[in-house]
Amino acid sequence: MANLCTDSGKNLVLKKIASCTAWSCLLVGTLLAAGCSSRSLTNVPVEDRGTGLSRPTAVAAASVKPAMPGAENAGKPGYYTVKPGDMVIRIGLETGQNWRDIVRWNNLTSPYTIEIGQVLRVAPPINTDPLLVSRPVVPGAAVAAASAVRPASAPAASTPAAPAVVTSEDEIAWIWPAQGTLVAGFDEAKNKGFDIAGKAGDAVIAAADGRVVYAGAGLRGYGNLIILKHNNTFLTAYAHNQALMIKEDQTVKKGQKIAEMGNSDADRVKLHFEIRRQGKPVDPARYLPAR
Description:
By secondary structure, the protein is of the alpha+beta class. Among the domains are: 69-129, LysM domain (Membrane-bound Lytic Murein Transglycosylase D, Chain A), CATH 3.10.350; 170-286, Glucose Permease (Domain IIA) (Distorted Sandwich), CATH 2.70.70. The protein is 24% helix and 20% strand. It contains six helices and twelve strands.
């Protein structure tokens, strides 16, 4: 039988149709359609189902991420799990630690990049050299401790220095850090400290003896910021300054000018002042003397 799907076959069919009856024409047309359609089915691409079935397994394997550094310590005392928006400086403020100690305890390298879910040590490791850990200075040993951490090129003090930090919160005699008007009080949800108004350049003073653990503008929302560590319990923060008068690791005394009031990262000239007890903001009214 001639191949109906070739050109010569189709011409033969057309001649047959021209001379056929209505019934036979229907039969011939049906056979032609069936023959040609069965040939076209053999040209349909064959799907490689073996390859397709293996893809989900490969994708699932690729989506498994390695555990974040320190994950085995998550939830343990003295450790902190990094949240969205965290910075090492902020973690130091939230945990009451010197941010440089956190960098050292976790072997972080500049630019101190941390990842969400990473678990950081925020308490001194056991058997850490006491000269490398921010800790209270016993009054009788204040001069020796200060000399031990001072750079070798720094000149020796001509007279014994006052204790840099105190040994218990009961010994802290707080003073107001600025003389302006209080324009916003403490609100645990909205304002973590006091806002004190003033003029640009007004003096900002240390509220108690302490050591500078941060001086810079790296913490969003605080502008030019100073953080003082007073002992293992208390930190104070001084934000929105126009100029900083001290540097990190410097020892300061109560009443010493540490900055000039300004409006860096703020809508007006003011000092934002916080007292933090073990990293948690507390109401300064509980500690500052009545005016």
